[in-house]
Every structure is written in structure tokens, then in C-alpha cells.
Amino acid sequence: MPNLVFILMIAGGVLSLIFFIFTFVAVKNRKIIGSTVSLLAALLFLALAALAGTITVATKGYVALTHEETAATVTTTPMGGKVFLANFEFPDGRKASFRLAGDAIYVDAHILKWKPLVNILGLHTTYELDRVAGRYMDIEEEVKNTRTVFLLAEKKPVNMFDLRTRFAFLEPFLDAEYGSAVFVELKKPAKFEVKVSTTGLLIREIES
Length: 208
Fold this sequence. Notes:
Blueprint: H1 3-28, H2 32-58, E1 63-64, E2 69-78, E3 83-89, E4 95-101, E5 104-114, H3 116-119, E6 126-135, H4 139-144, E7 149-151, H5 160-166, E8 174-175, E9 179-185, E10 190-197, E11 200-206
Antiparallel strand pairs: 1-6, 2-3, 2-10, 3-4, 5-6, 5-8, 5-9, 6-7, 10-11
């Protein structure tokens, strides 16, 4: 999370506390105008701190994206009967394994592209892998057979992608109205790199 947003959250909280103290003092001294002004200022800074805090929580798990980079390395092992094991290794060292059904592995992600207006705050294009699933190449099998879908994203109380679609006031700051997905058919044990760029996801097979 960019330092400036965190600083805004802390500064807003501190200033809000200070003005609440001023409000209490003004009320105690029966200063109506002074207490009203202090209360309004306290609420304003509290709202600023709350907004900065919400952005901090909502973008937790998102990774800053400035060029093409590896989002995950995936090793797949067929287990027979159109079932395969997908072992994920993420850049931060985290690992996860998923038993998937289908002919192909499917991965999607959320891409958050901040508008230039807020780039000065250090908020740039970010991404977060969202789901992994097994995918059947035949549409009839996709409809009739077992579906396997797992969450890759980190669970959090609020998600910036969801906030953007729910609250119109974020529209001038953030373009979060799209996702990106990629899939590749599996015919043998293989190792892939899931890459993400400013244009979306791509997947490349690499030497084991």
C-alpha cells in the first residue's frame, strides 16, 4: 500500500481526534459557534481517514503492476479421467494445490487501473488473481460434467473492485470495470507461468 495513503489515514485520524477534543472544550465553555466548527472539522477529517482506511483494506492483496510480470508458476499433473492436479507457487513464496476437473486450466484476475488524477498518490495499475478452475473444451461436457472452481484471491472485509461497481463517487478515480482470463489445454504434465501485463493475463509453458 502506498505510503501516502497510509499517511493520509493516520493524519486524518489524528486531526479528527484533535478537533473532537476542541469540540468538547468549546461545548464545556458554552461556545456554540466554536463547537459547531470544530465538530464539522472533526467529522471531515474522520471521513478522510475512513476513506483512506477503506482504500488500504480494499486493495490489500493487490500487486502493483508496471510491466509484464509473473503472477504465478503452475505445475500441472494429469491424474486420469479428465482430472488433474495444479500446484501454484506465487512470487511471495506462498503455495497452493487444487484438484481440478476438465481438459484445461483456467485462471482469471481483477485488474485495477487508477486514473491519472490519483497517480500522484502513488496508486498505479494493480492486479489480483481471483479464481482457478478446470475447463472442458467441449461445451456439452462443460454443461453436464463436474465443475471445479477455487478462490485464489485473498479474503478481505472489502474489495476495491466491488466498491468501484457499487459506489459512483469512485468513478473519477478508478477504472475497475474489467477482468482478464486465460486458459490452456492440458495433454501432459507441464509447467506454466501465468503472466500479467497492463493489457491482461497470458500463460506460457516453460521448461520443467
